[in-house]
Amino acid sequence: MEHESWKHKLSRGKRSKDNNSQTGVPHGDAPTIFYRIELGDVSIAFTSGQNGSGPTFTDFIRGVDFLVIHLAASEDAIGFVAELHAKPSVWGKMATDAGVGHVVVSHISTSSPKALKQSLVIFRNNYSGALTVAEDLMCVELN
Question: pLDDT at position 56, please?
Fold first, then answer.
């Protein structure tokens, strides 16, 4: 029952009375949805899989306290992967342009620690704020 009422609080591309919102983002031929949630004084945005080409995304996440991104593509990604997922430099630029306070990197699609490190260096060249690399079942304190 609680989940049903949550669904009704979100309206496509608009803020609900609780100041929570969702809208679609480009993800190849399989568009996805990102969310922004306001919990008291804390705001969280979940990016979902996307390629970073959506013109309204930066405005949508502007000033968010926590941004959870999918780091599923490397900087040299091409073809199908690049159609679906933003590159680390794109994520970093969007987070910086939007004034995001803290980025949580999730949905990491490399099994190579070296490749992840390279992506994080590129991300860091474009974003200097707080950063957490998520792990399965990790909890992030919202403060």
Answer: 83
